[in-house]
Specification:
alpha+beta
């Protein structure tokens, strides 16, 4: 896996830097803000979140904003189920349209990514129809491209994140590297949220999250 943290100070800067940078919002992949800058904005948003914040919703809202996507969903893997934790840009009816999401089901991008633990790249509606014809009947017609990525941390599959776009996306190598790095950050955040929720305590400190990302970057 290619490492996108060219400086080991990215996470530290995300926590400590107070420059007047705009919040992550509606940016297309590959726009003028570099990969490191966009990842830093996501980390800054996590760092600014209050303890006990709704981490899955924060996670998906930042992922959608950082990629300029139409919408997205973040799911957790619970045994053989893929459970939707939060979504952005979808109604409750749209979220439930696919029915139960089961690990082992290869007919949907989310469950495919959860089953194979491999990213799914769908560059156009034609590509989607060819690979996952079932989803065309279930999702809004104005969606044109998708990415679904497994969320792994500490060697464990925690869930999967799906991002949808309203226009075709060829997903260049730089785009894919950025989305994989974003998924890595989201997985770490989801892991800390899951552990704190299981322990019945407050959400883990965003400063700890920043140092953890920095440590992982240095190790890789």
């Amino acid at each position: 896996r290619r490492v996108l943290f060219r400086s080991t100070n990215v996470a530290e800067a995300a926590v400590a830097d107070t420059d007047d940078q705009p919040a992550a919002s509606g940016r297309r992949i590959g726009d003028e803000l570099g990969t490191e800058g966009r990842l830093r904005l996501v980390l800054r948003a996590f760092a600014a979140a209050p303890l006990g914040a709704d981490s899955p919703q924060l996670l998906i809202s930042q992922a959608v904003a950082a990629t300029g996507a139409r919408g997205g969903v973040v799911c957790g893997v619970r045994g053989d189920r893929v459970v939707i934790l939060a979504s952005e840009g979808y109604t409750p009816e749209q979220r439930s349209a696919c029915g139960p999401l089961i690990v082992g089901d290869l007919s949907l991008p989310l469950t495919y990514a959860a089953t194979t633990e491999q990213p799914v790249w769908l560059v156009s509606q034609a590509d989607t129809v060819d690979r996952f014809p079932r989803i065309v009947e279930l999702v809004p017609r104005n969606e044109r491209a998708y990415a679904a990525l497994p969320l792994r941390a500490n060697g464990e599959l925690l869930g999967v994140v799906g991002i949808s776009f309203a226009e075709r996306h060829d997903f260049t190598e730089a785009d894919r590297d950025f989305l994989i790095a974003l998924a890595d950050i989201c997985a770490i955040h989801l892991l800390q949220w899951s552990e704190s929720s299981a322990a019945g305590g407050p959400a883990a400190s965003a400063v700890q999250l920043g140092y953890l990302v920095q440590a992982l970057s240095r190790a890789e």
